Amino acid sequence: MQQIVWTFLLFWSILLTTRAGVTCVWSSGCVLPCSSQYHEIIHWYKDGKKNSVHTFYDKADHLDYQDADYKGRTSLFQDQVPQGNASLLLSSIRTTDEGRYKCYTATSSDNREQFIQLSVRAPVKNVDLKLKSGEISCSVEGVYPEPKISWSEDGSPVENFSKEPLRDKDGLFSVSSVFTQSVKENTTYTCSISLVDESQKYTTSLRPENVAISSGQDATIHCPASQENSGDSTITLTFGDSSTILNISQISQLPKDIEWKGEKIQLTPDGTVTIYNLENQEHTGTYRCVRASARSRQEVLTQVQIKSDHTKTGVVVGVVVTVFIVVVICIIVVICWVKKGTKHRKNQTDSSGNNTNSSNGNPNEQEQDIMLSTTDRSSP
Ligand SMILES: *[C@@H]1O[C@H](CO)[C@@H](O)[C@H](O)[C@H]1NC(C)=O
Ligand SMILES: *[C@@H]1O[C@H](CO)[C@@H](O)[C@H](O)[C@H]1NC(C)=O
Ligand SMILES: *[C@@H]1O[C@H](CO)[C@@H](O)[C@H](O)[C@H]1NC(C)=O
Ligand SMILES: *[C@@H]1O[C@H](CO)[C@@H](O)[C@H](O)[C@H]1NC(C)=O
pTM (2 decimals)? Predict the structure, then answer.
């Protein structure tokens, strides 16, 4: 019987010493659990540190010899110590808090040691995927532990990318990566960030598309297709740097017709956006449709170009120029004839009625008019 009890106790202590672990979120508070029936004296230690993390006896904290890294960040649940709760509350978790902790509890007659492994996580909140001068870059900031970065092109993994990890003063990682192959239209580029221990994965993708229409045509752009686990995703369609066209949290809330700066827009559940009768040149530019959830973000970046109708303009310009030239020629012709007429008059006054021009034999209407007027004048 005694043997069974010992085996059980041994098993229990192995379980406690090897399995106890706690994952704490960077900068927030975290409880290192420990319970013991011997709770008159409580010491918390960390591997590699000589001084204690926290010390409690005579029903009070004694922190004179506390390790400097833990100053002002530790407390016990003092009201629960008499019930055997020796847990330590550690606030403002730092990356350097990672490691193995020992909870030493004792009475004057007995003591107990328990070990807890503390791990720190600074989860990925957002991954920045940018298309700039034909290059796609992916960056993430303030994560812990070090993230792994991977790229894929239309779903196939690619190895051609640069990677630059940096550690900030808090020990958090920032990674910036540039996809080093030429970026193609209608291709989906995906950057995935996962923490080294696979505890978290964040996927973000970008797809460049181009649409060229003539003024007055309908423009069709795409929003990212829904992923299987996108129950909580939001869809945002923006134009340029800031103008929000659409911002919905559920595809089922799809509004029937959207009006945006005088443009009629329709979105279908498959993610196709149609902008009707687009002719306002100010709406030439970049349309960004983003589908985002807690773990992923997909983006389609559509460059819409509205071509003003060149052939039509050409015809109009041609007609205007032709009319102008014709008018100028007419004016010149008229001026010439008027000058010629004055000369006639002069001739007629000089040689009293001697009509030199009649010998032409083929006078036109203008000539006749002038001759008529000269005859009228020369006959008083
Ligand atoms: C000790 O008390 C705190 C605060 O109520 C609680 O969060 C923790 O789980 C308790 N720990 C144990 C081992 O009972
Ligand atoms: C990576 O890019 C270089 C040139 O930029 C190219 O020569 C090489 O074949 C690429 N590698 C792969 C795996 O695509
Ligand atoms: C991209 O897709 C659009 C629409 O499907 C098509 O009109 C266009 O030609 C494609 N571009 C390329 C470079 O394949
Ligand atoms: C979309 O709406 C949500 C709340 O409904 C808001 O938090 C978010 O900032 C909006 N996004 C844009 C781009 O307007």
Answer: 0.71
